[in-house]
# Entry
Amino acid sequence: MTTILSTWKEPGEVAIRAAWKKRDTGGGLVDALEAGLAAAELDPNLIMIGLGSLPNAEGDLELDASIMRGSDYLCGAVCAVRNIVPVISLARKVMEDTPHVMIAGEQARRYAIEQGFEPRQTLTGEVIARWEEWRESPERIKVYEHTHSDTVTMLGLSEGKMVAASSTSGLPFKQPGRVGDSPIFGAGIYADDEVGSAGATGNGEELWKAVASFRAVEFMRQGMSPQVACERVIEHMIRRQPRAQELPCVVFAMSRDGEIGAATTKDQFDLWICQDGEFEMKTFVA
Ligand code: GLY
# Structure
């Protein structure tokens, strides 16, 4: 049995279907999650991650991605990368072809080019127009409030082996160089085959402060179900981090035996689940 999870309704569906297609045609879990996130990144119509997602305050798109294997904690991430997609494939290269955990910014872009990635224009006319509208808006902050599904995070499980991966364009119109939780192990993703895996999406600053994914996995290690573990993380955030309810902060988790849970500080959260080619979307409400 293979179980794959993917966040948010629209980009999550693109990602999970591509991931299952890869898995169903013989790909491993790492291949499947990479294929899923790459498909969502390369779809210019999804204004969420990768190509055609919302840029930073200066109109430049900076992308983050990460991937982690639960068997041995092998992991790789990139952050603040410009003009390269899919960045999840670059994160995989860091994981498999370097002794490092993360490569950042311009050096990550140069590493990508050395590895054969073609630099390209990652902005579309649509997102340039949205950035111009934001720049002219007297109430800029409101735009932030309406956009939170700019991250796709995936978990995969097969025969007790787990992989976690994430790709994001970060907060829309963020300060240049800002990096959130998604490429940070323990914050945006975490996987440990002894226990389970967890991922996050939403306000990257608060999720990082909470070390949300690691905390959920450690709660499962103490014996909590994934649902209770996620609820405990969210309760802790609400109690200790007042800003965690300004924008949604979501944590979701899967135990090594395939049980699933999720919780959010605010609003609602859609999670796609694929079990051996059977697809279902579940909604979790705060
Ligand atoms: N969760 C994505 C970010 O805040 O960058």
In short: Residues 151, 168, 170-171, 180-182, 201-204 surround glycine (CB under 6 Å). The radius of gyration is 17 Å.
